[in-house]
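Aim 2, interim progress: modelling of the phosphoric acid mono(formamide)ester-bound target.
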Amino acid sequence: MLNWMDSLKGRSMMRLASFTDEEMLNLIDLAAQLKARRAAGVRGDLLHRKNIALIFEKSSTRTRNSTLIAVRDEGGNGEYLTRPDIHFGKKESVKDTARVLGRIYDGILFRGFKQSDCEALAKYSGVPVWNGLTDDYHPTQIFADLLTVRETFGSLDGVTVAYVGDGRNNVANSLMMGCAKCRVNYVCCCPKELEPDPAVLAEATEVAKRNGVTIKVFNDPKEGVKGANVLYTDVWVSMGEEAKTAERIKMLRPYQINMDLMRATGNIDGKLMFLHCLPAFHDFETEVTKDCGALEVTDEVFESKYSKVFDESENRMHTIKALLVSALCDRKSI
Ligand code: CP
Ligand code: NVA
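Predicted structure of the complex, ligand included:
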């Protein structure tokens, strides 16, 4: 029996803060159920005849394909619309595009630059809008991350996630809030210049306190990761920040996740895993890394038994499916 909460029906998701703790945990449960159902060979009709627009201003492998296949698996249809395809924000205001697409589609997944554009789409389209990454937040990613932790360790209880790298990017902002809501301790290891925005940190800290878990920020990565069960990193230069590449590589070199840092957790023989939202610069095969080698994580860690990054990326599909089904499925449960 699949169950989703009534409160999620018709809801947009701009950022995790707008979901209750219970709603977040329910979405993770539902994703696990949908994953088992797909593994059993069921291709259902929970999104029968639902049309979803995917507006993407930035590149994507996981979010784009996870959404398109999640929708198709359940009998719906997704349309992928990049910036050159539509007038969005150029010949037509975001507000007008929202009003047009809201009359055609049942929901919109947006990946772009400005959080305010995502919010305008939700405000003016009249249909649920999901944030598939903006400069500020990447909420759909975190459901997949926490589902992966739960699958690997059996539970989220008592887990400490240490995020190492650019502590104020979209993934870090959402991960911090997701951990606080799901009662997971969060440690951010980053240089002073890249510490979380004080308002984002304060908002998540309030939730963490209420839930009896902690959020800590360290500039020394070896000190910060002590006792951690999950080492998590992301690219050092997010999409749209390419001009800062040289500066970031210099600043973040000491924050690379390598076997030394994995050992510094003290959990190398115990409960320990490595996560990365991907794409990752872990080897010499990409255009960016061919001259400088691995950046945020070494190949040794990325390819190790601790690495659950491909489970994590698969879970993007199951978790996005849970979000869409909760918001759009006309049935209460099946
Ligand atoms: N993690 C993630 O969002 O990947 P994509 O950029 O490939 O969608
Ligand atoms: N912080 C990264 C995440 C990519 C999924 C970016 O915004 O490029």
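The chain has two domains: 6-137+315-333, 141-313. The beta strands are 51-56, 77-82, 107-111, 129-131, 160-164, 185-189, 215-218, 230-233, 273-276.
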